Amino acid sequence: MISCGNVRPDVTLPLELTSSSAFKVVFNQHADSSARGREAIQEGKMDQAKTTITKIFNGTEGSYTRFLTQNMEEDSSHVEMKLSSETEEEVGENGVVDHGKHRHARPSYISKPGLCNPRNICIAATAAIVISFVFGILIGSSMYKKTTEEASGSCTTPASVPVDDEVMPIETGPALDWNDITALLKRKLTTSGIEKSLSEFSREDHQAGSAGDEILANKVLTIFKDNSMDPWIDVHFVKVQDLPKSGANKVTFGSKTFSEPGYLSYSATGTAQGAALYAYYGREDDFRTLQDFGIDMKERVLLVRAGKNSYAEKVANAAKVNASAVLIYPDPADYSFNEDTALLGHVHLGTGDPYTPGFPSFNHTQFPPAKSSGLPSIPAQTIRASTAAAIMREMGGRVPPRGWADGGLRDVEYRLGDINDTVSVEVNNVLTEIQIHNVFGVIKGYVDPDRYVVIGAQRDAWGPGFAKSTVGTSLLLELARVITRMIHEDGFRPRRSIVFASWSAGEYGAVGATEWLESYLPSLNMKAFSYISLDGIVTGSTLFKASASPLMYDLIQRTLKEVSSPTNPGKSLFTQVAGTNWETAVMEPMTMDDPAYPFLAFSGIPSVSFRFTQDKPYPFFGTSLDTRRNLESKASNILAVTKAAGEVAGQIALRLVHDHLLRLSTEKYLNIMRIQVSKINKEVMSLQRNGRLPKTLQVKWFMSAIGSYGRASRNLFNTIQNSDLDDLEQCRIINDRIMGVERDLLSPYVSPRNTPFRHILLGSGSCTLQDVLTQLAAIREKSANANVDLLKNQFALTTWTIQSCANALAGNVWDMDNEL
Q1: Vertex 764 angle, CA 523 and 435, to 5°
Q2: Are 511 and 351 in contact, with CB atoms under 8 Å apart?
Q3: Taking phi first (over 0 means left), then psi (-120 to 50 degrees means alpha), and beta for anything else, what does residue 699 get?
């Protein structure tokens, strides 16, 4: 089993040379370096010659056993040849040693010294012939080496080497062109295969850490093994909150007590009470509206509707205004299901195990007590629509702001609530430790095997979780099967590797995925160049939406143009969904509850999640109603839609591992930087005119850093235009520069433990440009949180983060542009 920290994607090429004395030498060729390959061939010939002489004079026929090791953190391979005098292990397909095939050494003929008989003469003649052959090899090798060293640096390895009587090419790149690859993907990814996987992975109970989750994990592992994907498992021990032993938390209003079957993991526990206050969706804008109405939210119990933002954001926003507790309910205007349906979710404003923030959960006995700053300080509980109706029918107070009374609770006149409408909330969730399993398989690349794209899907769910996890898991395994068959049956040779990951504990906030990222962060953000999420990939069929790193926008656009629409096969998906402005129509900001968010904002890995959807959000996530039947009521022909989703994910991944250069556009970030800095500049100039900011605080340093980034990006483009794309080393250098952009936008000035989402453009916290705008707004509003010195510090650190990113993108130290 290969551990996650030691993914060793290697490529081995068997080379066999035979003679009349029936000896065999096996050479191993790592495919990422033509220069090293040529040297290995020459050394192999030398070893062959030595072995031949030894056999003739010593009369012992040996065999060679191969041991190949490659450290994940190194680009070079170490090859060791070990002599065995008893047996010879044959190398089968893909360079795998077959321990079941042994050749017994034939007895050597021994003659008495000084005896001149025909046999000795024959042996001497044979020795003379072989020695001449050896010297011929050495002379030819020397001339060949000299010739290749004088070559112009092309990345192409020798066209062929002799294997018995055949010629076997040393493959260093894809054997198929892009049209062949997309045609194979489309043909091999079938609705019948998807249907089979959907049936196999549909379960009513597969909550993280449960027996059902473990059964599915073993199925995934078996499928990866059957496809020869060198699977491995990472085990984590994480803390989650479960329902209390009584099976329900309680909400009391007046003389009525309601036992609620739903719950919110990671809520603060205990009892809280206060006057009920209807706060619409619990967004920051909603709370500002209440403040404009002159309503004090301190120590109030807030009733908010599910939807629009995450449970965790609703509770965090409520805590900021000093509310005592939060009740979240599904309003019939947004959720078309039975009014007694329970909601389940979590309220950790972050991802991963909140009790091991910034570091992995392997064994809690090793770690000191710790917890995430994203854990809420107030109790939070989901309530059924029927409970919300019973409470709100009795509430008085003012008429709510315009639009807030558009709900669908039966016989309810929506009111904000009166100071005497007292509600008590009792949350007794139990903190437990569970064992979870992340399951991985790898398809290894042939040129840069230590660079890889990761495709992942959540495996667990609160209930059936058909749309949430079953579709994504099934598609993950179908893509693994299809791409493996493309390699074994059709000659596809990906340049880079593909890692397939089945995560657990996704329902608690991408816990399994984040723990893996925390475990191997130093390796992953140097080696993984992209992440593709398959979670919630089908919730409808009429619309296509995506969230991604700006680096991937051009790749997404190109992919949409090449994939056919599942609802209109005569048109491309791009034509169906794009409209006049494809980015506006398709792309959405990536939020913290997006399963790809930790890869992007925590690890600095360009990431994408996407989905086929409908006008209204899919209402069944986090309920027992997320079934195939209910999904089919929202999405017509889910098999065709799932196949189209698989083609989108598959083409993105295959494009990234097929092309010489990574299809990631560094120019896209330049526009985002300019937009953010333009907003900052506008605020700064306004505050300086009003005398609230000193004139010494100048945005020109931001502008200078952005200029450096723009020049570095353009220089990279020129370098690509003037480069030989058949030069493997040159391509690798350029790709490393491209890969570094996302990683270099993570602020190095804050701790991942305290500020995990350190991406200055897409993250959250004091290190981001968005927080610079927040601080400027606080100064403008004369808020108690306003701090000019903090603002100056933010200016300095964010400016230099952009400049450092520009420096790294420029490449060599002598090419850096430090105009600051």
Answers
A1: 55
A2: yes
A3: alpha
Closest by Cα among 699, 663, 660 to 682: 699
Environment class of 119 (CB within 10 Å of its CB; exposed 0-12, middle 13-18, buried 19+):
exposed
What's 244-428's CATH class?
A: alpha beta
Tokens for 271, please give them: 């009892």
Given the candidates 2.30.30.40, 3.40.630.10, 3.40.50.10260, 3.40.1210.10, the CATH classification of the domain at 221-233+436-503+518-614+629-658 is: 3.40.630.10
Q: What is the spatial distance between Cα 91 and Cα 27, in angstroms, rounded to a whole number?
A: 10
Span(s) in the chain for CATH 1.20.930.40: 667-815
Rounded CA gap, 94 and 604, in Å?
33
Q: Are 447 and 524 in contact (CB under 8 A)?
A: no
**Structural tokens at position 735:** 């790709």
Provide block-wise average pLDDT over 10 residues at a time, the chain (820 residues).
38 33 34 42 46 39 29 35 33 35 34 44 52 49 40 34 38 73 97 97 95 97 97 96 94 96 98 98 97 95 97 97 98 96 98 94 78 96 98 96 96 96 98 96 97 98 97 98 97 97 98 97 93 98 96 97 91 80 93 97 98 95 97 94 98 97 95 95 94 91 94 94 92 95 97 93 95 95 90 95 95 66
Domain 667-815 maps to which CATH number in 1.10.3720.10, 2.40.50.140, 3.40.50.170, 1.20.930.40? Answer: 1.20.930.40
CA 147 to CA 757: how far, in whole Å? 52
Beta strand 161-163 pairing with 97-98: unpaired
